[in-house]
Amino acid sequence: MTDTMSGPEFEQWFARLLVASGFRNVTVCGGSGDRGADVTAIAPDGRRVVVQCKRQSSSNRVGSAAIQRFAGTCRDIHGGDICMLVTNSFFTAGDGIQIARQLNITLVDRNALEMWAWTGRLGLGSIVDH
């Protein structure tokens, strides 16, 4: 379903998923000049969530450079307590995933996103581990 969406449609869809999952003050702020924050929200536990959405073809994986750029803005520029990079695709194996772990960036790939959409909850296995 998400494969046919535009980038802005994917951001709106993900924002609705956050609302359905109990997040509050969900705001879509993507577009040029967003400095990496496509969606912001308040988690059910009160922490500030900053999300970058990457909607692309399933064969085009999100790499280390995108993770590093987001890590550079999520907390310092946007004040994120929870930094989440979400894709309808997958992440490249290797350095990017390691950097995400070290910097506490939650990576939500196609499989985790599908499970979240079905269950309404981000599962424990959602942080990419391959």
How does this model look, in words?
This protein has 4 helices and 5 strands. With 130 residues, the protein is of the alpha/beta class. It has a 5-stranded mixed sheet. A hairpin with a 5-residue loop joins strand 2 and strand 3. 35% of the residues are buried. Mean pLDDT is 87; it is low at 124-130.
Question: What are the defining features of this structure?
Answer:
alpha/beta; 5 strands; globular; disordered C terminus
Number of alpha- plus pi-helical segments: 4
Secondary structure tally: strands: 5
Provide the structure class.
alpha/beta
Q: Cα-atom Rg, whole angstroms? A: 13 Å
CA distance, first residue to last residue: 24 Å
Gross geometry: globular
Work out the strand percent. 15-25%
Order of helices and strands: HEEEHEHEH
Indicate the low-confidence ranges by residue numbers.
124-130
Name the helicity range.
25-40%
| Largest sheet features | 5 strands, mixed
Strand order of the largest sheet: 1-2-3-4-5
Mean pLDDT: 87
